[in-house]
Amino acid sequence: MKRLEEGTTLVTGGAGFIGSALVGELNRRGFENVIISDFLSNDDKFLNIVPLRFSDYIEADTLFNLVEKKDHKLNTVTHIFHLGACSSTTERNAAYLIKNNYEYSKTLAHFAQNEHIRFVYASSAATYGNGSRGMSDEIFPNTDLRPLNMYGYSKHLFDLYAAKNNLRIYGMKYFNVFGPNEYHKGNMRSMVLKSYESILATGKVYLFKSDREEFRDGEQRRDFLYVKDAVDMTIFLGEIPEMISEKPTWGIYNLGSGIASTWKELAFAIFEAMDREVNVEFIDMPNELKNKYQYYTSADLSKLRRLGYSKQPMPLKAAVKDYVQNYLMQGMKILNY
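Given the sequence above, the corresponding structure tokens read:
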């Protein structure tokens, strides 16, 4: 396998949240031979790539035409970070999700395998559903998982396809990622950003009441991961050798903090970072989210650790403080590079 500095890196979804943060970190490490691909529509996410250094930009539709033709523009590509997808957990257009999150992924993955290109793609912790069947990345393919929404299923479907077809690729089950570069995501913005804006407007943070006896209001738990750590883990998987001790390294990996924090802990950290008095109001969960809501997520990082990833993710309070004080309170939407 060639190293990142030996060829061109293609980042799909490169103008999006994690994708643009990834390109920024590659730049910081000295890599500029990067092709960014995305759908740039009428939102402001183009601002994410304004400060970045890259060799070319290709609209996603054009990219897939180039892939199908094996166009010479892709001849130097040695790594693909496939982060482009519809990431809305409330999207109900199944055909749209299948096209964007499944069919496009298959096309790119087969191209990468045929051309001996390292392929690292974004899956999601949404594939784990309510967690009753575990959140282990050790079993691949895990046909027992039952995602709660169509977004999660579209990601799960490609995970299953990759495993059944023995694709030598690297999947990343991102848990709840938050941080700069997410401002354009509308209702899919993290609770950190939504709560910061709510505190400025009303002085309050609004959290969902719990409909399950085992969880008190605000004590539903999620694994929150700062985008800076998500990007570091992603690049690690892009550089790891394909074989370690005669064992293949490809497969699926959980990317999270490894800690399940409550929504109240997250809210308190935001108030503390803003130096505001805690004021939380509990509201009813919308009907469209009932039975589709994850009450507990936590990433088991054992498999990633066995590969040699030893860095500890930033603790939640420190990550929230960095995001709030060094970005949001400074009027900055985009990561410093």
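The CA atoms of residues 34 and 120 lie 15 Å apart. Try to locate this feature in the token string yourself.
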